[in-house]
UniProtKB/TrEMBL annotation:
One of its GO terms (molecular function) is hydrolase activity. Keywords: Hydrolase, Magnesium, Metal-binding, RNA-binding. Residues 38-110 form the S1 motif domain. It comes from the Bacteria. Gene3D superfamilies: Nucleic acid-binding proteins (2.40.50.140). This is Ribonuclease G. Its cofactor is Mg(2+). The keyword Amino-acid biosynthesis does not apply. GO terms for biological process: rRNA processing. The keyword Magnesium applies. GO terms for cellular component: cytoplasm. The lineage of its organism: Bacteria, Bacillati, Bacillota, Clostridia, Eubacteriales. It holds the Pfam family RNase_E_G.
Length: 475
C-alpha cells in the first residue's frame, strides 16, 4: 500500500510518502521556521556589487536577499548588474533559494506560480512541455491546449502531472493562477510580502500526489478541510482516499519512527553490511562509501562493485529524503575501471529518476570521485531539525585533554609565580567543566588530574560563560 501521511503537531507539519511501507519522500515545516521559498516580495535594492555581479535586496525578512545579474528579467543584452538596477530601486522579486548559514536568500525577478498541471510564467511568452512526458501524441495534445488557453502577456509550463488531464481542468487551474498573479500589487511600499507560496500540504499534494497513492491519512482538522477543498477541484473522484485519524504522533502510529530517525544519522548501514557516511560542509555534501562488515564470496572487484551499486541506491534515496542540494561529492570504493564507473553512473541515473528536483551527474574525476549536483529547494532536513553545536561550533571535534594540559603548561611556564602556589584555580567554559567532571567521575584522564600530578598542586575549577570552549585561565 502507498500512503501519504500528514502528521500535525503543535506548530509543526510532517509529511511522509511511503511505497510498500518504505519511506519514499519526507518533508517537515514548522510555524516558527523561516520558509520563504516561492514567496514574492517587493524589495528595495540596498547595495550593488559589480565585483560579483549581484545586488543585495531588502525584502523585509532579516538578511538581505542576493539578486544575481543572470536572474534579472528582462536582460536580453546581458548588461552588467550596475546597468540593470540602481541603489534604492524597488523590484518585484521571488525567492528561488532559501538562506543558508550566513548567506541570505537567492532572488529572481523571473517570477512563476506553480499549479498541479501548469506553471504560470508572467514574465515570458513561450509554452514549454515537461520532458518527462514521453508520448508524442500526448505532448502535441497538451501543447495545443496550452496555446489555445494562453494569453499574449504570459507563458506556461505544462507539468508532468497534466498528462491525461482534461482541457476543462487545465483551464480552471489557469484561471486560478492568473487570479493569484493579479494579487501581486507593485504599488506597495517596499519591503513587503506580496504573495505567499502555498502551504506545505498544498505544495506536497500539488507536486507529489498521483493515482498510485492509495490513502491520505491526516490527524489535523484544518488540513483535512484544505485537502477536501483541493480534491474537490482536482480529484473529486478520489476524495474517499482522505482519511482522518484522531491520533497524535501519526508517524509513530504508522510505524515510521525508526525510518525517520535514520535520516539524521551520519552513518547509514546497507543490507550487505557495508555503509555510507554523509558529512555536510559549507561548500558541498561529501558521501563516503565503505565496505564495513561485507567481505563477499568471490573476487575483490565483484565485491566492491556490489557494495558500490547497493550504496548508489541508498545515496539516491538519502539525497532525496534529506533534501540535500548543491554540490555532492561521492567517494566510492576502488572504482578505477571505466566500465565500472559507467555501470555506477548509469545505475545512479536510474535511481535518481524518482527525484522531482533536477539533478546532474558530472562523472568521475581523475581521483575517481563522482561529482553531481541537485537543485536546492527549501532547506536541507538537518538544517530544519538541528542547530550548530555551541561547543564545537559546528566542526564536530573538541580539543583533547592533552591539548588543554599543554596550554596550561605554557601558561604556568610563562608565570613562574604560579609554580610557587599550593592551590590553583582553573577558569573554563561551563561546558568544559561538565566534560572534565564527567571524565573525573569515570576515572578518565583529564586536564585537572594532569596539572595536579605534574605540578604537585591542588586545582579547583571556576566557570565563565564568556569563555570559548578550549580557552583556559589559571590564577
Amino acid at each position: 500500500m502507498n500512503r501519504m501521511i500528514i502528521d500535525v503537531q503543535d506548530g509543526q507539519v510532517c509529511i511522509a510518502i511511503t511505497k510498500e511501507n518504505k519511506l519514499d519522500h519526507f518533508f517537515i515545516e514548522r510555524a516558527t521556521g523561516s520558509e520563504h521559498y516561492g514567496n514574492i516580495y517587493i524589495g528595495r535594492v540596498e547595495q550593488i556589487k559589480p565585483g560579483i555581479q549581484a545586488a543585495f535586496v531588502n525584502i523585509g525578512e532579516g538578511k538581505n536577499g542576493l539578486l544575481h545579474q543572470k536572474d534579472i528579467h528582462p536582460n536580453d543584452e546581458n548588461l552588467p548588474i550596475e546597468k540593470c538596477v540602481k541603489k534604492g530601486q524597488e523590484l518585484i522579486v521571488q525567492v528561488k533559494k532559501e538562506a543558508i548559514g550566513d548567506k541570505g536568500p537567492r532572488l529572481t525577478t523571473k517570477c512563476s506560480l506553480s499549479g498541479h498541471f501548469l506553471v504560470l510564467l508572467p514574465m515570458e511568452k513561450k509554452v514549454y512541455i515537461s520532458k518527462k512526458i514521453r508520448n508524442t501524441d500526448e505532448k502535441n495534445r497538451l501543447m495545443k491546449i496550452a496555446k489555445n488557453l494562453k494569453g499574449q502577456d504570459y507563458g506556461l509550463i505544462v507539468r508532468t502531472e497534466a498528462e491525461g488531464a482534461e482541457e476543462e481542468n487545465i483551464k480552471r487551474e489557469l484561471d486560478y493562477l492568473l487570479s493569484k498573479w493579479k494579487k501581486v500589487n507593485p504599488i506597495e511600499i517596499a519591503p513587503k510580502l506580496l504573495l505567499r507560496d502555498s502551504s506545505i500540504v498544498g505544495r506536497m499534494i500539488r507536486d507529489y500526489y498521483n493515482e498510485e497513492i492509495d490513502d491520505i491519512i491526516v490527524n489535523g482538522r484544518e488540513i483535512l478541510e484544505e485537502l477536501e477543498r483541493y480534491f474537490s477541484i482536482y480529484f473529486l473522484e478520489s476524495v474517499e482516499k482522505i482519511k482522518y485519524i484522531e491520533q497524535p504522533y501519526l508517524l509513530n502510529y504508522c510505524g515510521l519512527e525508526d525510518q525517520v530517525n535514520e535520516l539524521f544519522d551520519r552513518k547509514v548501514w546497507l543490507e550487505s553490511g557495508g555503509y555510507i557516511v554523509i558529512d555536510y560542509t559549507e561548500a558541498c555534501t561529501v558521501i563516503d562509501v565503505n565496505s564495513g562488515r561485507f567481505t563477499g564470496h568471490n573476487n575483490m572487484e565483484e565485491t566492491f562493485l556490489k557494495i558500490n551499486l547497493e550504496a548508489t541506491e541508498a545515496i539516491a534515496n538519502q539525497i532525496r529524503l534529506r533534501n540535500i542540494g548543491g554540490i555532492i561529492i561521492i567517494d566510492y570504493i576502488n572504482i578505477k575501471k571505466m566500465e565500472e564507473q559507467k555501470t555506477v553512473v548509469d545505475y545512479l541515473e536510474k535511481c535518481l529518476e524518482k527525484d522531482k528536483l533536477k539533478t546532474k551527474i558530472y562523472g568521475f574525476t581523475e581521483l575517481c570521485i563522482l561529482q553531481m549536483t541537485r537543485k536546492q529547494q527549501g532547506k536541507r532536513l538537518n538544517r530544519i531539525q538541528t542547530e550548530e553545536c555551541k561547543i564545537c561550533v559546528g566542526t564536530g571535534y573538541l580539543p583533547k585533554q592533552e591539548v588543554l594540559f599543554y596550554k596550561a603548561m605554557s601558561i604556568m611556564e610563562r608565570n613562574k609565580n604560579l609554580l610557587k602556589q599550593n592551590t590553583l584555580f582553573l577558569k573554563v567554559n561551563p561546558y568544559l567543566k561538565e566534560l572534565i567532571v564527567e571524565k573525573r567521575e569515570k576515572n578518565e584522564h583529564n586536564v585537572v588530574q594532569m596539572i595536579e600530578e605534574y605540578y604537585k598542586v591542588k586545582v579547583q575549577i571556576e566557570v565563565s560563560p564568556f569563555m570559548e570552549f578550549g580557552e583556559i585561565i589559571i590564577f
